[in-house]
User: Fold this.
Amino acid sequence: MQAQSPADAEASMEYYLPQDVEYDESIPTPQEVLGTVPGEWHVRHDQLLEYMHAVAEASDRVTLHKFGETYEDRDLVYLTITSPSNHNNINQIRKEHVALTEPTKSDELNTADMPIVLYMGYSIHGDESSGSNASMLVAYYMAAAQGKEIEDKLQNSVVLLDPSLNPDGLNRFASWANTHKSENMVADPNSMELNQRWPSGRTNHYWFDLNRDWMLVQHPTSQGRINNFHKWKPNILTDHHEMGTNSTYFFQPGIQSRTHPITPEKNQNLTKAIADYHAEILDKNKRLYYSQESFDDFYYGKGSTYPDVNGSIGILFEQASSRGHAQESIHGVLKFPFTIKNQFLTSLSTWQASQNLREEILNYQRNFYKQAKREGEDADIEGYVFGLEEDQARTYHLAELLRRHKVDLYSLKKDISVDGENFKSGSSYVIPSDQK
Assistant:
């Protein structure tokens, strides 16, 4: 099989979308709302919001939720995409799904009848923008595609679509790439369009890498997103990135020796099972790709690893970057629409995998928390105490951080001494090993 040349890509809905599906004409396309097809220009965050609002207004499959603002006052939003009947019962669906993570309640739930929950996140590094541009296609497809297969997927899943994990960085990069675009595209890697100046669009307003903040949770985007995560406890979280121009396409699992030792083996097995669906759709579309040969799954402060320690499955995607609208590579001229389509394709393959593996993944989530409960009950150490009277500010912020991650902790009721350290009521906390 000969791989499709990235130089053959074009910015058109016919190029991006499956053509064996009918689409609801009442759902607007990105071109109808914004005047351009994804890939002709790099989408700005305000344009992205405009399109997501338009889809939510037009479709009974989609609702839009604002959950905060960035430092530059850009709205943070996500879409909830599911069947109309699920929308009518969405609060109960969420409560039952979260109960799956509560060992005292989870045995009462029949996972055969439960929707699976996916959190699809795009472009936490703002200059890796194929993801956010692809999110418009994902939203359109899920809202407009017709047929029993699509309706079954919507009934059996709740998709939380976060179109821009870093709006300030995305906007900064879009401004650079669009400002320096030529009427006749220049693919020379030395072109100014392809060499953004510092601080680049990778980071947020304060130049912080938000893909290191899932554990630290110091920035408003991360705080809102972690709250969303624990509000829903998604089963799968996708994290769409870009890498060097001369690469191809990567999806997890990564290098096994660089996986955190407390990540369950079942998590990695399910990641591999999901990977088969990515391989299938990329093969069908004659794309080059690889897996298990690079990237770690170790630090839990990244979007693709934080879920792994919370009973979910995090999946990293890395697309070779055009870093503008077109760039020469060892595989030919890499065009922006080619990168967008790959991110769109693996969004669809993730959705398909979630359907076929739905009950197994839901059961994994339930068993993860039951096992954690047993380990806490059997632990030799009953709990941990922290907090010194002379350092109450740091104590307060550590307690705040733990609460964001839904760790149970309690104010110390009476003064105690442990290993020569004195901990006083009112300025110390205890964390029981038996959580949940």
About this structure: Residues 30 and 114 are 32 Å apart (CA to CA). The chain has two domains: 6-372, 382-432.
